[in-house]
Amino acid sequence: MLKIDGITAFVAVAEAGSISEAARRLRLSKSVVSERLSEMEKALGATLLHRTTRKLTLTEDGAAFLERATRIAHEVREAAADLAERRGTLTGPLRIAAPVTFGRKHLGPALYPFLADHPGIELTLDLDDRRVDAASEGYDAIIRHGLIADSRLVAWTLARSRRLLVAAPDYLSRYGRPASLADLENHRGIFYANRGVADWRFQGPDGAVIIRGKLAFGVNNGDVMHDAAIAGLGIALLPTFIAGPAIKEGRLVEIDVGCRPEAEFIFMAHPEGRNPSAKLRAIADHLRKAFGDPPYWDREG
């Protein structure tokens, strides 16, 4: 007889790629997860996973079983949460990924009061600046800054994001202050490495304008970009939720080149085909109110 906890363990292992990571996500010991997998394989009369010392892969039977198992595990989890929500309680596990800098500076502080008001929610927040695959890595949702390019995601806007070209006063005194888009091409740039290209994108009267500066420093974290700009390494295009305080303090100077950067947003996105839970919708609504329109980081001072 198949047990739900065995199906849940199998799905978690398939998504995580290892028993140890699945155990961490499920908050169980490795031995318990392994035992549940073995019991389910015995009940099915089939081997679902190839186990070696280096990696874990799905067998042909495992790959065939995974799609339905994933759906079953998700439906059972959501059914239990729906029953609680019918009683007016938001409850159950949620797993969300978000960028490090935004998560530390703004997302975390916005979430704390919501979680205190809804202690039944078991939220795991993974802060990571890489481009997370929400569907294959088992996330209920991801929060991102920019544009959502993954067609498998359904995106909800949480807040607008205004970006500014900035540099340290010391850098501008040494290299001059650009006054046009053409001037930027001769300047050293600090670029977000996860985008894969060293350029700045602006919204011109006839569409997008792309300017390629000289790469001075590339890094995949907004805090480090901010610090590198303050250190005078070059010009950076940063959102105001990162650069705002340093601009007010005079450690960074806004640069006007006569053209606005392309508009971006703070998004929450969930995998297409999944019915988002009431608790996920409630978190999204709370974050919209907490950030405001325009967002509070553009209104302070």
Integer-rounded radius of gyration: 23 Å
Structural class: alpha/beta
Number of domains: 3
Largest β-sheet summary: 5 strands, mixed
Please count the helical segments: 10
Structural shape: elongated
Please tell me the overall pLDDT. 87
Q: Tally the beta strands.
A: 15
Instruction: Look at the structure and name the CATH superfamily of the largest domain.
Output: Periplasmic binding protein-like II
Low-confidence stretches: none
Order of helices and strands: HHHEEHEHEEEEHHEEEEHEHEEEH
CATH second-level architecture of the largest domain:
3-Layer(aba) Sandwich
Ends apart, CA distance between termini = 63 Å
What is the CATH domain class of the largest domain?
Answer: Alpha Beta
Q: How is the quaternary structure best described?
A: single chain
Residue fraction in strands: 25-35%
Q: Percent of residues in helical segments?
A: 40-55%
What order do the strands of the largest sheet run in, or round the barrel if closed? Answer: 4-3-5-15-6
